[in-house]
Each structure stands twice: as structure tokens, then as C-alpha cells.
Amino acid sequence: MSVEAATETGEFQPSPAPTELTEPFWTGGLSGELRLQRCADCGHVRYPVSTICPRCLSPEATWSAMSGRGIVQSYIVFERAYHEAWASQVPYVVALIELAEGPVLISNVVGVEPSAVRVGQPVSVVFERRSATAALPQFAPRTDATAAVEGGTER
After folding, report:
1. Where are the beta strands (DSSP E) in the chain?
2. What's the farthest any 2 CA atoms get from each other in the chain?
3. Whole-model pTM?
4. Counted domains in the chain
5. Which of 35, 44, 89, 111 pairs as cysteine with 140 (C-beta 3.0–4.6 A)?
6. Domain annotation covers residue 5
7. Is 155 a domain residue?
8. Burial class, 82, CB count within 10 angstroms (exposed 0-12 / middle 13-18 / buried 19+)
9. Is residue 43 part of a domain?
10. What count of other Cβ atoms lies within 10 Å of the Cβ of residue 104?
């Protein structure tokens, strides 16, 4: 897992605004970790971040580093910039990424042409630093060799 440097172009890049509740998620990326809440009572991995567990309603949780591996569950290629901040990135992929640990994140698939993205494709998390307090998790395709060595299936 790597942390990519922020662009030096001076272009506006939307940046997350961590709150007390979400700060461990955003700062985890600064150290190359995808961190999610794990219920301290039932062990359920929570996402989105919440003050209570959706499975057992416990308010107790710890932040745990996830493997960063997942599969593309669904995706769309944006070929039009719906905000000027993303005009230079068109076309880009927004995808549902099912993590090996179960939760599904909405993120981007990067490092490959949009036409090469496929449902079921193995991916790994990479991070794009957006500010001094947050790095955005995105996903890059894993090679067939990497997926085969790790068992191929994410569950």
C-alpha cells in the first residue's frame, strides 16, 4: 500500500474534512492503512462509520486495519465532469468495492484504463493524499499472479 503525493498543479482537489468520529479512517490512509471500525462486542466490521453497530447496536468499537484487498462488485465510467474539480480526470471509474472483510466501499479504480475495469476484478487499496489530515482510499487492479498466490477469491 502506498501513499501518493498530492498534485502540485494548484488545481482544486476536494478534500475530506475529518470529524472526531471519522478521523481514524482518514488518517489511516496517511500511514498506508485502510482502517474500519470493528464492533467490540460482536466483531462486525462497520462501514459506513457509525456510532453504533448495525448488527448488535453496541456503541463500542475499535479501529482495525483491513487487508486492503477486494473485488469490483459494480462500476460506472464517468465521461462527463459533473463538477469542474474533476474535469481533468475524465474519464474516471467509480466502483463498488467489496472488501475481503465484507464491507462494500464506494471508491475509484485507478492505474488502469477505464475500459479495462471488470466486475469481479481483484483490486488492492492505494491512497491519494488530499490534505495534511486525510488520504483518500482508491483501488488499483491486482495482477492475476498476485490474486492466484493469495488464493484468487477474496472471501
Report:
1. 3-4, 35-39, 45-46, 61-65, 69-78, 92-99, 104-109, 122-129, 135-141
2. 46
3. 0.83
4. 1
5. 111
6. no
7. no
8. exposed
9. yes
10. 15
Alpha carbons 1 and 81: distance in angstroms, whole number: 28
- Identify whether 11 is part of a domain: no
CATH number at residue 131: 2.40.50.840
Q: Which residues, at least 6 apart from 38, have a Cβ–Cβ distance to it below 8 Å?
A: 44, 45, 46, 61, 62, 63, 64
Buried b (16+ CB within 10 A) or exposed e, 59-68: eebebbebeb
Task: State whether the Cα torsion 79-154-105-13 is positive or negative.
Answer: negative
> pLDDT (tens digit, 9 = 90+) per residue, 47-70?
999 999 999 999 999 999 999 999
Q: Which helix or strand (DSSP H or E) is residue 23 part of?
A: helix 23-30
* pLDDT single digits (tens) 100-154: 999 999 999 999 999 999 999 999 999 999 888 889 999 999 986 555 545 444 4
